[in-house]
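To illustrate the input format used throughout this study, we show a single complete record. The first block contains the structure-token representation of the backbone; no residue identities are included at this stage. The design step must infer an amino acid for every position from geometry alone.
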């Protein structure tokens, strides 16, 4: 099967500005993430304005973190040759690990302003994070990017828009790793909903859901990276950069889980 969908959803009339599926999904992602965070804030007894006040810190933390992550984790050599390239975001280049770090900074900033414990805020944003991680990969799928390795597996697709430099009859089958990560994100999201219920919702230990998210999502990401095509220079080790960057949050999540459970029993 061949995936050759035009990434442009429609053109704005008069100005002929292209609206991509990725942009539509990103916007929907942001709105759903805000709705989930508002649900958690409202359940805690705080006013809805506390969730709305996270909109701009969360947006800038996500976008700036994702851009800096792409530059420094994957294309630092290119940045050294052309430092102004960091500002040319229209040329593409966002990294999920950088986005995660940017969101952590935004959570810290928001928690200080609202005088809410950091881990409590993190817990309440895990639902948005898991669903967001899933949907953004759906956007990558429509863009025919972040593709998998060449394979003969039945679970594969041709991406002629990715392998545009090859003749049509030579376009290889690849793992649709975007869909793998989309499915993994939905599973993590569902798992967090279940864990929230099992741990007593508002009685859950602070940091428990944050730990569960870090362990579940980045473990899934680590595994799926084995099927993903390498991208960026100097990514030729046995473990990809994505896997190496996933190890720390997994280990940190395990430590946080132990801490949260011990503190709850104390």
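Output of the design step:
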């Amino acid at each position: 099967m061949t995936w050759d969908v035009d990434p442009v959803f429609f053109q704005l009339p008069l100005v002929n500005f292209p609206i991509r599926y990725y942009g539509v999904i990103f916007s929907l992602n942001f709105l759903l993430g805000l709705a989930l965070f508002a649900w958690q804030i409202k359940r805690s007894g705080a006013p809805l304005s506390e969730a709305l006040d996270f909109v701009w810190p969360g947006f800038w933390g996500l976008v700036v973190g994702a851009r800096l992550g792409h530059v420094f984790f994957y294309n630092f050599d290119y940045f050294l040759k052309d430092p102004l390239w960091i500002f040319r975001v229209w040329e593409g280049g966002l990294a999920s690990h950088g986005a995660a770090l940017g969101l952590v900074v935004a959570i810290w900033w928001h928690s200080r302003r609202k005088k809410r414990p950091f881990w409590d805020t993190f817990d309440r944003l895990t639902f948005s994070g898991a669903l967001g991680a899933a949907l953004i990969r759906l956007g990558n799928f429509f863009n025919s990017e972040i593709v998998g390795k060449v394979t003969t597996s039945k679970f594969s697709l041709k991406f002629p828009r990715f392998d545009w430099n090859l003749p049509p009859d030579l376009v290889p089958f690849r793992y649709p790793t975007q869909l793998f990560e989309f499915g993994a994100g939905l599973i993590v999201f569902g798992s967090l909903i279940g864990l929230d219920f099992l741990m007593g919702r508002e009685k859950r230990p602070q940091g428990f859901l944050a730990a569960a998210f870090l362990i579940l999502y980045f473990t899934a990401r680590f595994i799926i990276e084995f099927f993903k095509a390498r991208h960026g220079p100097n990514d030729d080790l046995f473990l990809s950069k994505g896997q190496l960057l996933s190890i720390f949050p997994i280990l940190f999540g395990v430590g946080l889980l132990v801490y949260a459970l011990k503190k709850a029993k104390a």
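Structural context for interpreting the output: The chain has a mean pLDDT of 90. The chain has one domain: 8-265.
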